[in-house]
Amino acid sequence: MFQEMRRNKQQLSKEECMDILREGTSGVLSLAGDEEYPYGVPLSYVADGDKLYFHCAKSGHKLDAIRSNPKASFCVIAQDHIVPEEYTSYFRSVIIFGTIRILEEEKEKRTAIEKLAVKYAPKDTKENRENFIRMEWEPLCMLEMSMDHVSGKEAIELVRARKES
Ligand SMILES: Cc1cc2nc3c(=O)[nH]c(=O)nc-3n(C[C@H](O)[C@H](O)[C@H](O)COP(=O)(O)OP(=O)(O)OC[C@H]3O[C@@H](n4cnc5c(N)ncnc54)[C@H](O)[C@@H]3O)c2cc1C
Predict the structure, then answer these.
(1) Which of 41, 83, 116, 148 is paired with 27 by a 20 to 30 Å CA distance?
(2) Does the CB atom of residue 52 touch ligand 1 within 6 A?
(3) Is the CB of 26 under 6 A from ligand 1?
(4) Is any atom of ligand 1 closer than 6 Å to the C-beta of 43?
């Protein structure tokens, strides 16, 4: 059902995709928006196993879209190195297709926000992290996205450079 990459020499391995997801700090979540306009919204995230987690407010365009259609894709750009003399970008990126679930249970919501907090403030103390989570808890909504299909691609020039090294 998911499309194969046409230029498959440029395809990244699953491990490389996971490394990009681990190291990335934001991506664009694409949803079926209003009146058939796709809605691409930038978000922070954390990857854990075969899931992605996001935090957001309890209302808004994004949540409306998820409630009416939980199928989504998420794109993370790891590198966009412009090479003007070649009129190109030495890029690396990952795209995930999956389904989003709004976390309703307190325990799973808590586990997810902790993962996100540790990713973005790894040096913070447990106490301070817990304080922040407590302060933000009421308006907080947590989302879990399954990774039904993951692909990564890099510029052909990066493939060639790898072969030469
Ligand atoms: C790098 C980055 C990381 C972010 N991380 C998070 C995060 O982890 N959690 C989070 O909740 N939000 C994050 N944001 C903000 C996020 O992009 C949205 O603005 C926010 O989530 C509200 O989305 P919504 O659909 O509920 O907004 P709504 O206010 O309901 O959206 C209504 C309309 O406002 C416009 N709009 C909304 N957001 C944006 C935007 N970012 N840029 C331009 N127009 C916009 C769109 O036209 C949209 O249809 C991040 C933004 C950036 C750039």
Answers:
(1) 83
(2) no
(3) yes
(4) yes
Specify if 165 maps to a domain.
Answer: no
Which tens digits make up the pLDDT trace of 93-138? 999 999 999 999 999 999 999 999 999 999 999 999 999 999 999 9
Look at residues 134, 123, 110, 128 and name the one whose alpha carbon lies nearest to residue 55.
110
| 147 contacts 101 by C-beta, under 8 angstroms | no
CATH of the domain at 135: 2.30.110.10
Is residue 1 situated within a structural domain?
Answer: no
Residues 6+ apart with CB under 8 A from 128: none
What is the residue range of 133's domain? Answer: 8-159
User: Does 141 sit in the ligand 1 pocket, CB within 6 Å?
Assistant: no
Beta pairing partners, 96: 74, 150
Whether residue 2 is contained in a domain is answered as no
Q: What is the pLDDT of residues 60-91, one digit of tens each?
A: 999 999 999 999 999 999 999 999 999 999 99
Q: How far is the CA of 40 from the centre of ligand 1 (A)?
A: 9
CA distance 58 to 143: 11
Residue showing tokens 């990066």: 158
* SS3 state at 92: strand
- Indicate the number of domains in the chain: 1
